Amino acid sequence: MDAVMNNLFLSKRLYDLLKVKCHPDRFIEPTQKEIATGIYQNITKYKTDYQQLLNIKEQVKEPVSYTHLRAHETLMNL
Question: Is 40 within 8 Å of 78 (Cβ atoms)?
Answer without folding.
Answer: no
